[in-house]
Design brief:
It is a single chain. The protein is 41% helix and 20% strand. The protein has 332 residues and is α/β, with parallel strands linked by helices. Strands 1, 2, 3, 4, 5, 6, 7, 8, 9 and 10 form a ten-stranded mixed beta sheet that branches. Helix 2 links the parallel strand 1 and strand 2. Helix 2 crosses helix 10 and helix 10 crosses helix 13. The N terminus is likely disordered.
Length: 332
Amino acid sequence: MLHALSRAGRRRTLQGGAAGVVVLGLLLWWVLPLGDREPSGSLTFSTGVRSGVYQRYGQRLEGALAKDMPKVSIRLQNSEGSQQNIERVATGEADFTIATVDAVATYLQSGKPGGERLRGCVRLYDDYVQLVVPRGSDIRKVSDLRGKRVGVGQKGSGVLLVADRLMTAAGVDPSEDITPVEAGIDTMPQRLTDGELDAFFWSGGLPTGAVEKLSQEFDIRLVPLETPLISRLQAAGGSTRHYRSAVMPADAYDHAQQGQAVQTVAVANLLITTDRTDPLMTEAFTRTVIDSRDRIGREVHAAQLVDLRTAIYTDPLALHEGARRYYRSAKP
């Protein structure tokens, strides 16, 4: 009987010890972090053409990302613009990028490789279409571009996409009625100054540094994009539904506008990635974009327009799970 009592006591001791281990484990789980909750590794961010808003924004964002994600190696990659950016991310050449929503919708509709894997992170700022001419030019509307030498953006740019659509809506055949010059914002201002171009299209945040600099050194004017033209553009349906009528404020380019607001077309930009990207990385990236808005906005004005209340709307792309986690945590 004493032997039986001894065995029972040992069982109670073992059970008590096991319970203690469980309790200790729970306490450690509560107090100590499990695993590394900081993103690590490397990422490539495809930006834009030199001196454009994408590139300037990307350079400033790189510094903020390096501070917030010290274990991540970040590489910036210049590009021709939205169309090339989307293709790079969709095919795995880059991890994150910025692109206009019309270019994203066009890529999805075309059925190009990797489109089904694209995901949205942040709705950023709006691009404004800017048709720039010398002040003394006889070009007063888009249809006046017939017979002119027109800078239409680079082949992989969102500028080329919207420029072709605007000219078509105005009854101008972009391949027959003008001399199209595929060039970026890094060279078009000088070509206009040198008389090599009669006009050029640009689509970017306000103000775009290259256009502002041009306006201070050379007399230019911004051609209005009239409301009927925008209505015809939207009526085409599909990806053109993302265009909307907008007004460039009178002080966007003081020298060029001389106190006059200018009717134009606006389209939103998205920060995009794919479902291949680690949710932890995407959550941290999204957080940095929102948190660095004011700091970057002091140098790149368009960044100030990123708004947490609208950032979540990334149509036509589904929201990436990592971005979704951030927005849940950021709720007031």
